[in-house]
Amino acid sequence: MITMKDIIREGNPTLREVAEEVVLPLSDEDIKLGEEMMEFLHNSQDPVKAEELGLRGGVGLAAPQLDISKRIIAVHVPSGDLENPEPTLSAVMYNPKILSHSVQDACLGEGEGCLSVDREVPGYVVRHNKITLSYVDASGVKQKIRLKNYEAIVVQHEIDHLNGVMFYDHINQENPYALKDGVLVIE
Ligand SMILES: OCN(O)CCCc1ccccc1
Ligand code: NI
């Protein structure tokens, strides 16, 4: 089971590597890894388990954060509405690829954090508001989906990890809260 000790922190060179494409058909090892990554996200969002296991809550995780330089990410975005417990996005994605994106940019009003970064780094992380994404799912089936707003932000954060990019690389050093006209701030 994945816990915080398995997550590498900034300074580890793996976080700055471009990860390798996963070989298809998916190996049992890569399928099991995806399952463990998703299990970590579920546990990290369960107050009892997160407390027991000392987990930081996360809505996404990328294999390079486990010192595994493979293009695998897991995302699990809860709906945040107790009436409707269905997550708005839950998937293990192999070889995810952004096929196209909106001209419109967006950022989270509260900025971003990262399980591999044990410090606050304030500032807007400007990303694409909408993306069209392809990936291979855990059954080996090629998927093509469109995401927007928070879900699109999360997936871009994870795909950045596959390319050795950290969220703070996007923050304007001169003025962390500088915003060009038209950037959507998602609260
Ligand atoms: O890479 C996953 N991770 O470090 C957990 C945090 C994920 C995340 C946090 C804020 C905005 C988008 C994504
Ligand atoms: Ni991260």
UniProtKB/TrEMBL annotation:
Keywords: Hydrolase, Iron, Metal-binding, Protein biosynthesis
Enzyme class label: hydrolase
Family (UniProt): Belongs to the polypeptide deformylase family.
Protein name per Swiss-Prot or TrEMBL: Peptide deformylase
Binding-site residues for Fe cation, renumbered to this chain: C114, H157, H161
Function: Removes the formyl group from the N-terminal Met of newly synthesized proteins. Requires at least a dipeptide for an efficient rate of reaction. N-terminal L-methionine is a prerequisite for activity but the enzyme has broad specificity at other positions.
One Pfam family recorded for the sequence: Pep_deformylase
A GO BP annotation: translation
Species this protein is from: Enterococcus haemoperoxidus ATCC BAA-382
Lineage: Bacteria, Bacillati, Bacillota, Bacilli, Lactobacillales
Cofactors (names): Fe(2+)
